Amino acid sequence: MTTNVNAESKEAAELRRLADQLYEGARRGVVDPTLSAPSSDLDVALRVQLAVLDRWRAAGERLGGWKSGLTSRAARDMLGKGFRPFGFMLESRILPSGAHLKRSAIGRCKVEAELCVIMKTPLRGAVDPAAARAAVGAIAPAFEINELRFPSFPPPFLLLADNLAQWGAVVGRPFAPPPRLVDTTVQLMVDGKVIEVATPGDTMDDPFVALARMATTLDRFGLGLEAGQRVITGAFADVVVTGACTVTARFGDWGEVSITFDDA
User: Fold this and answer.
1) HEC states along 154-222?
2) Which of 6, 43, 169, 220 is the most buried (most CB within 10 A)?
3) Domain with 228 in it: what CATH number?
């Protein structure tokens, strides 16, 4: 019995150290490249991610919303059929369209054009897409800002524990939810030049499907989506940002979102 207790305590201590290291890495913009995955259990990885969130909260940050991971293109079902992990977004890093950021404030930076769901009512437990849609107050054009803190693509456990590379989001003007969201065409522009045009259609999860799956996953950890939270639901198009520029995404007739990265 003593051996089992000691083993459990050792594992818990190892996971706490990993959460500490990932939190410090997220603050610095780069993690220790020698970190290794202590397990292959993806639910344990998500618990480590939530422990990192606890450290941000202890430092005075607030939870502003969530991201739905692995919803688009080749990433779908990468870690198992129907498995869609969550990531958290800090309230202080959810910015309005037109905001400016110092490029040096973020490590290796990738910007993804996404839709942002704004919750009207709480959503918890095993729900279907219709219930998810009913809980949504508005949709907005948005960017997710990713910070690639590992030098190369990490193993699944560390990908999830490190919050799916999440740094923040940029949210444009909201609009009423239309019947279908994935058939719109997005133009992604850098300094006014179109670099990608994408209409994902069925190659990515419908945002209401993503939302329902997220509520189901969060429920396993005693959590849910709350009124007022913002949720980003999958990338339509993306660009790696290496220097000063303005990135804009135009979502058909639904509006646009932009972010300017200034020199360091």
Assistant:
1) CCHHHHHHCHHHEEEEEECCCECCCCCCCCCCEEEEECCEEEEEECCHHHECCHHHHHHHHHHHHHCCC
2) 169
3) 3.90.850.10
